[in-house]
Design a protein that fits this description.
single chain; three-stranded antiparallel β-sheet; mainly alpha; about 150 residues
Amino acid sequence: MAAGTGPDFQRNGLSAFGKRVGYNGLNISTAIFFDTAFVPALVHQDPRYPVLGQGPVKTRVAWAIKHEFVAFRDDGREMPNYGNLVGLGLASLTANAYTPRDSVGYGDTMEGYLINIGVSTALNVVMEFKVFDQVKTLVRHSKADKD
């Protein structure tokens, strides 16, 4: 709601909050299904993000961005990342089925698609630098300091 994206539900109340939670939960589930399961299985693509894990920051960020558009076949050869390019498009189109009519249109669908691509790219960068592992380590150390 703060970003101003997604369908235009009424602004306040528990009902509007529930609709937003349901919309976003279904949107994320649909994107994951098409991006990591359905489309990669059809084209024999490995949907996992291959972490580079070392090298300069610029190289690792470029690797994460490249993976949005280039993936690997089951046999290890490079191929277009159909899981992202087609799968996230299918997820954006599917979102129209559960979006209020006044929020459905070409511009809204393209906005959803580009948001999905952006979020996917950001998650690649997070996985590349193992941000979640570093947060877990910080939390463990802060708990150990209290004991």
